[in-house]
Amino acid sequence: MIRVRFAPSPTGYIHLGNVRTALFNYIFARHNNGKLVLRIEDTDKERSKKEYEEALIDDLKWLGITWDEGPDVGGDYGPYRQSERTEIYNKYLQKLKQSGHVYKCYCTPEELEEERKKALAEGRPPRYSGKCRNLREEERKKLEEEGKSYVWRFRVPDGEVIAFEDLIKGTVEINVNEFGDFVIVRSDGSPVYNFVVVIDDALMKITHIIRGEDHLSNTPKQILIYRALGFEEPKFAHLPIILGEDKSKLSKRHGAVSLRAFRDDGYVSEAMFNGLALLGWHPKRDSEVITPDEIIKEFDIKDVHNAPAVFDRAKLKWLNGVYIREILDLEDLTKRAIPFFENFGYKADFEYYKKVMEAIRDSIETLMEIGERAKPFFIDDFEYDEDAKKFLEDESGYKVVQTFYEKIKDKDKITKEDFKKITKEIQKELKVKGKGLFMPIRVALTGKTSGVDVATLVEVIGIEKVKHRLERALEYFG
């Protein structure tokens, strides 16, 4: 069975690049009836925080990603937090010691920095010289008696070329001379990423490792550890990096890049799923609007592009608008919108929220835009825009509003049809039409010269609010 994993570090809100990795693992697993494992890489004790772990789990679930094993759901291959697997790592370190694949390195940070500078000055790639590789036992003993601390380095075979078949990049070959002997356990006894990730993936029976191409340089090191421990090597797939619109690597300078930020900005999960899936992959159909279920059905890892993917914020916003306007069920959309209504101080019952969403959904691209677009449905005592005032300061415009008020003041309800009937009557009586007819009424009811359909507005807010706003306008401009 295909088994993949997503292994984030809980050191902050999850970045779009990591979300895309999680998403492709999820899609690949579900397309192939496989299993997805969530593993928390929390060995960075200084930066890892429980609240970030909870946040990333919440954000991934919001996006629609579910996993079969993990710290919150359990499974047969736990624990699923690296901080709880120390004894396991120690066991495999002993195995590498016994087989002679590792050795103690006593070089200080200063000595290593000197080596690095010298290599760069000579035009060589910086790599460890192997100074401590063949120390005699008495030399090691002397250094330890002097109180020298040490790390454990993996003994890399000289000149070997590590080759593997990447599911996206094809054949990859890397000469070990490019990196040399590398550290697998720090001087404080804490294991390094390249060591623990191999053990975790092997023991959790991960068959395919799908991750960003920034991990490509780690792969040959990990393959060496797989071989040294006698583990079966998984298949690798390295996803293209994500660039901003300026073609530089996506980062905070391109604006908000965490999934949480897009949630807070009123993006809906299906649009985010759709948009992130298109970063490096495209369906065979022409349309870029493709639902999560359709993506899972059509996805093939072989169709993922090798070239970098460009994150287009405007395109994602457009896509979000499509889901809001055309795809999401009104009831469901309203439920998602309620926290945004409430955050803007707009209080109402569900049915009223639903009517407002029906009225404004065609004019918004994110739920955050509810703040401005929904204002006419909730705010009665608004300011009049400067460019709007002229329509009621004009005698003809004032007369339109006055006549409209006279025709509704004794009514106990008003519908769209009523609005249309009354405006036709005013048109005939006052010999006005177009802007001269509708703009004064709009300004009286909203304070603006553009926005929501006025016939819809009067029906939703109801006759009492309509009367109040007209009375207010007549008093203000009278």
Task: Give a concise summary.
This is Glutamate--tRNA ligase. This protein is mainly α. It has helices at residues 16-31, 50-63, 86-99, 109-121, 137-145, 193-203, 219-229, 259-264, 269-277, 292-298, 313-327, 330-343, 350-360, 370-373, 375-378, 386-393, 395-408, 416-430, 435-446, 454-461, 463-477, and strands at 3-6, 35-38, 102-105, 151-154, 161-166, 170-175, 182-185, 208-212, 235-239, 242-243, 309-310.
Task: Give the SSE layout.
Elements: E1 3-6, H1 16-31, E2 35-38, H2 50-63, H3 86-99, E3 102-105, H4 109-121, H5 137-145, E4 151-154, E5 161-166, E6 170-175, E7 182-185, H6 193-203, E8 208-212, H7 219-229, E9 235-239, E10 242-243, H8 259-264, H9 269-277, H10 292-298, E11 309-310, H11 313-327, H12 330-343, H13 350-360, H14 370-373, H15 375-378, H16 386-393, H17 395-408, H18 416-430, H19 435-446, H20 454-461, H21 463-477
Parallel strand pairs: 1-2, 8-9, 10-11
Antiparallel strand pairs: 3-4, 4-7, 5-6
Helix pairs in contact: 1-10, 6-7, 9-11, 12-13, 16-19, 17-18, 17-19, 17-21, 18-20, 19-21
Enzyme class: ligase
Catalytic activity: tRNA(Glu) + L-glutamate + ATP = L-glutamyl-tRNA(Glu) + AMP + diphosphate
Subunit structure: Monomer.
Describe this protein's structure.
There is one protein chain. The protein has helices at residues 16-31, 50-63, 86-99, 109-121, 137-145, 193-203, 219-229, 259-264, 269-277, 292-298, 313-327, 330-343, 350-360, 370-373, 375-378, 386-393, 395-408, 416-430, 435-446, 454-461, 463-477; strands at residues 3-6, 35-38, 102-105, 151-154, 161-166, 170-175, 182-185, 208-212, 235-239, 242-243, 309-310. The relative contact order is 0.08. Helix 1 (16-31) links the parallel strand 1 (3-6) and strand 2. Helices cover 48% and strands 10% of the residues. The chain contains 21 helices and eleven strands. With 478 residues, it is mainly alpha-helical. The N and C termini lie far apart (78 Å). It has a three-stranded antiparallel sheet with strand order 3-4-7. A two-stranded parallel sheet has the order 1-2. The chain has a two-stranded antiparallel sheet with strand order 5-6. Among the domains are: 86-239, Rossmann fold (3-Layer(aba) Sandwich); 329-369, Orthogonal Bundle (Helicase, Ruva Protein, domain 3), CATH 1.10.8; 380-477, Arc Repressor Mutant, subunit A, CATH 1.10.10. It holds the Pfam family tRNA-synt_1c. This is Glutamate--tRNA ligase. Monomer.
